[in-house]
Structures are given as structure tokens and as C-alpha cells.
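Intended use. Records like the one below are meant for learning the mapping from a protein sequence to its folded structure. Do not use them to infer anything beyond what is encoded.
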Amino acid sequence: MTYEKLSPPATGSQITFNQGEPVVPDDPIIPFIRGDGTGIDLWPASQRVFDAAVEKAYGGKRKISWFKVYAGDEACEKYGTYQYLPQDTLDAIKTYGVAIKGPLTTPIGGGIRSLNVALRQIFDLYACIRPCRYYAGTPSPHKTPEKLDVIIYRENTEDIYLGIEWRQGTEMCDRLIKLLNEDLIPGTPEHGKKQIPLDAGIGIKPISKTGSQRLVRRAIKHALRLPKPKQMVTLVHKGNIMKYTEGAFRDWGYELATTEFRAECVTERESWILSNKEKQPTISLEENARQIEPGYDALTTEKQEKICAEVKLVLDTIWETHGNGQWKDKIMVNDRIADSIFQQIQTRPDEYSILATMNLNGDYLSDAAAAVVGGLGMGPGANIGDICAIFEATHGTAPKHAGLDRVNPGSLILSGVMMLEYLGWQEAADLITQGIGAAISNREVTYDLARLMEPPVDPPLKCSEFAEAIIKHFG
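Structure written out for the chain above:
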């Protein structure tokens, strides 16, 4: 690969992919984007931690060859005005497959809307993965933050984030409203006499079967790697209102789980049916249906027959493989309404493990979960597809703090933990996790955490000092 203004490392090997999984050499070349604003402080501290963990874990047998590439304001300085995402950077990430980046500015006055969204769409990074777990000692507004330990799988390429919309008053918007009001809505009886206001803006919310199922597939594969008590995938949706988009996401998720992962999965509803028969071996189909469906006796005969048929199908098809308690060793797949899950991660957080969700719901939910365990400063993130993965800090650039060596590098460091786990370098990842936990427990923290602790820590550590504290606690 020839670059305009980049020089790859003289040593190191390329990561390749096989059926969506990385094939990692012992000396991978990994592009990194320093990031804007506080990236100038965050990246050196984080790289120091990564390199120290790899060295301690593998004694020189493994090593990352870092390849600096450019995006955001730093790219404009090197490549010219509005060159927020130069082709060099895209070519490097495509070639080497795995990258990590600090926070990036949102372009103003020209260029593209969002660098983060652009990268996800360019490389088809359909799974945004955000673990939210608590590190003892981290200040939190929640009484029991340690109960929350979830991984959010957020679909990354569809929903309203696809960015297909029309501004109110434009010719195209007016034409679309006219088409909807005069043709498509009247032609769909279930919409009745609904009409879109003539002075509305219009956005499109596409949710596809392909996009939904590949996200749920990756979430289920992740669940298979977790300890048995955490093997649960919850489909988060607002399907009670948006039946053909969010409701379809739920239905397609269940379809995937009960076909492609039939041997490994049981749905919550199936578990009720199986459990009822285990408790009462002679239970009738009708009584089983009555126990799984609230208000069964008030339903029409047709709906009652449908539920009875569902019970019969479950017992006929999976009793031998999932009955007699076998379902308890399977991955539990259930679903929850989006607004309900926002409440439940606070009131019943220990009942959830992996949350699979569409783009917008996942955006809100991941930030809400991060707040419970201490905020975005401790929130890592990854964007993963079948031929590329980019790991990232989840917070903004905070330019007023840039160059002061004071901000918390936790988000970027924990994103690096995710990257090491993705590479299969679990030993190095565990060292960093242990180091962060011990540093926080010992009140060795940067100002953002220090000021919230009781009593406050004074003086707090600098960004670079926090990195050294993590390394010091490597076990």
C-alpha cells in the first residue's frame, strides 16, 4: 500500500480475518488515531499502559507495532482544510483491520457530519459494543452500582442514524409528504385517516432483517463466552409502537436464536412452557397456555387456539433437547420494551447481561448505563464488523483541558482492554483491568473521580500519573 503522507512501521505483521473473526500474529500492526483536544494527553498515557501490559504478560513474545494515522483536526493540519478523514487513514485501517482512536471533534462549517458515524458506515462496523461494569471505589450516583454488569450490543449502521431526512419546506420534503398523504397512507387501511403535517420535516427509519440478525448473532456468540450465570441476551425494542421496525427487530432476533442457535438457546417464553410441564408432567396444552399468557380466558377462541398451538410446537420440537431442566444450561433470549429497560438497569440491574438493541435506543441506553457505574470517563467502546474493528474512547474532546495532563484516560484504556480481548490477548487485558480496579480502590485517580470521592482526593493524579498507577498495580 502506498500512502500520500504516511509511513507504516518497519516491523510488524498484518491482521487478517476468517469468517468475521481476526487472525492475529504475535506482532500486529495497529493504526491509532491520537484524537483531538485531550487526545494529546490521553493517547500517550494509554499507549504506555498497553505496551507495559503486553510486555509483562508475554515477556517480549508479543508486541504491538503502532502506526500513527490521522483524523479530525490533526488531519486537517496535515492534509489541509476540511480533510477530517483523509484517504490515507481509510486505506491504513482497511489494510490492517484493527484500529484504536481517541475522541474526535465534530466538524463545523464543512466536511462530514460525524467522523465516528462515517467510520462506522465506511467499514460497515455494524456492532457498537459498550461494556458497563463497576470498579470498586468509583464515585456513582447509584446506591448499588456494583450490581450492574452489562454489555450493550448496539446496531451501528441503520435506524435514523443512516441520516436519510429532508428539511421542512424543501421541494423534496413537500413532494414526499404529498406522496404519503395522498397515496401511501390512504392505501394502507391500518393508518386510517392519519396525515402528516404539511410543515413537517421527514426522516426515514430503516431496520432490516440482515442488519438485525447479524447484530444479534454477534451478541449470542459473545454470550457463549460468558460464565453460565451471565449467558443471557435481551432484545431491547419499542415494538409495541413501531411494529414493523422495532417489533421486527425483536421477531428477527428470536428467529435467529431459535434456528441458527437452536441447540444453544432457549427463549424466555419457551422456558415457561417447559417449566410448566416439568412441574406438572400431565398438564394440558390449554392449561399450559393459560399459565404463560396473561388474560388467556378473555381472549378470542382464535387467539386461544394460537397460543395452544405455540405450546404444542415447543413441546413437540424441543422437549427432548431442552426439557427436564436442560434449558437452564442454555443461553436465555428474552425481550424488553425500551423505556422499561431504562428503569430496570437501575432497579433490577443484576437481572441483565447482554442487551441487543437498535441504534438510537442503544445510544441512550449505553450512556445511561455508563452513568450508573461512574460516567463516560470509565466507559469503553468498540465498533466491530466482519472485516474491521475500531476501538474508541466514548467521551468528547474537552478541548479546554487539552495539554494539561489532567483528564481521565480510563475510557480509552478500557477500550484498549476490549481490543486486547478481541485479539485474544486475554492475559494482557486482565492485567490492565486489575490495575485500574486497584488504582481506583486505592484512591489513586484523576480529578474527575477525585472530586466526587468521600472525602475528596487532594491532590488528584495527573493523566500520565494515573497510567503509571495502573501499571504499578499489575499484579
